Amino acid sequence: MCRLLIFLPVAFLLYYLLLNLPHEFRYLEDRWIAGIVTGALIFLVIPGTIYLSLSKIKKQAAVALAIGSWPLLGISFGILTNNREINDLNAEGQWTKAVVVNKKKAGKRAIEDWEVASRFVVNGQQITVGWDPDYEGTLERGDSVDIIYHPEFPELHRIKAEWEKSN
């Protein structure tokens, strides 16, 4: 019972910290670092603390709950992170014009889904971001597109079509 009182709050605290990672970390230039840390927390650390807290009670249940936490943690992380980004953009986002600089087919499905990369200027500095969905598939290189971005973290952005769909 003592383990339960120690490790379960640790698991909840780790998840809370994961959801509230600062923008500086989440939008690192080398995104693979953030991906590795996030993946380790979702697939190893938090399930490990759940297992440690429950393993004294019933071993099989502890294993099942630890493994079963993966989809729950992953899905909820995605949803809550997206909501946090939308809230941040609603509160502090600024609109500007961007230029489409690249276009690629999204995924390997037969459906024609496209993504675009775009470039815009913030405080005299050119920012290139991507890949954003092009739902209609009509954007081409050189096209102008409206974009909302966070002034402190321009990598946090949405093109207008994506923004309208998420709001």
Mean pLDDT: 77
The side-by-side strand order for the widest beta sheet comes to: 3-2-1-4-5
Class by alpha and beta content: alpha+beta
Parts with pLDDT < 50 across at least 5 consecutive residues: none
Terminal Cα separation, in Å?
Answer: 45 Å
What series of H and E elements makes up the topology?
HHHHEEEEEH
Radius of gyration: 20 Å
Helices, by number, come to 5
Number of strands: 5
Overall body shape: elongated
% residues in beta strands: 15-25%
Q: What fraction, in percent, of the residue positions are helical?
A: 40-55%
Largest sheet: 5 strands, antiparallel
Structure description:
- The chain has 167 residues and is α+β, with helices and mostly antiparallel strands.
- The protein is 52% helix and 24% strand.
- A five-stranded antiparallel beta sheet has the order 3-2-1-4-5.
- The mean pLDDT is 77.
- It is built from five helices and five strands, in the order ααααβββββα.
- It is elongated and about 60 Å long.
